[in-house]
């Protein structure tokens, strides 16, 4: 889907800041707790581990919730959205509880009837097996499709309708586009496709190569 998360290649964000070599996993203690809460919330909200559904939750945050609260603030906001989506929490429950912890004495919304999806992954992780050969080979020129996806996808907007070369054929993985919505795993081969920066962003772009890992469904032959 086209949202705040699909910002790759868009102007106005400045240069990318590489991480420090000594940068810790968590700069502050609350970030580690946020990570744990988000991981646990996903298991509760989905009935199992579904990283694609979690990513889709982050995509649906508004600009302030996605950017202004920082990386792990985004995870907390996503956790709240997941829990309210599955009716584990009522909308506004966290805000009301926070106000009561400050001594404000507000009424908290009643606990709803949970609506957790009937979800069970077929195996651990995302790696799967399929019974047919890959559609594309190393060295082959491929074009990304002009897809306008209303839900979750791992095909970034800047890479659509562009031509690149397959560098690596990877094993089959669960397709995020359907798995995020609990519509089946639909495993597909994944291809590491190399693009020229000027193919993606025009002749004025700095010359460099961009490699994207793309599902078979995102690609088509150039001839």
UniProtKB/TrEMBL annotation:
Catalytic reaction annotation: an aliphatic primary amide = an aliphatic nitrile + H2O
Similarity comment text for this entry: Belongs to the nitrile hydratase subunit beta family.
Keywords, alphabetical: Lyase
Organism: Streptomyces melanosporofaciens
Key word Lyase present: yes
Residues in Nitrile hydratase beta subunit domain copies: 128-220
GO molecular function: nitrile hydratase activity; transition metal ion binding
Entry function: NHase catalyzes the hydration of various nitrile compounds to the corresponding amides.
Record protein name field: Nitrile hydratase subunit beta
EC code(s) of this entry: 4.2.1.84
InterPro entries with a match to the protein in the record: CN_hydtase_beta-like_N, CN_hydtase_beta_C, CN_hydtase_beta_dom_C, Elect_transpt_acc-like_dom_sf, Nitrile_hydratase_bsu
Span of domain Nitrile hydratase beta subunit-like N-terminal: 1-107
Spans annotated as Disordered: 1-24
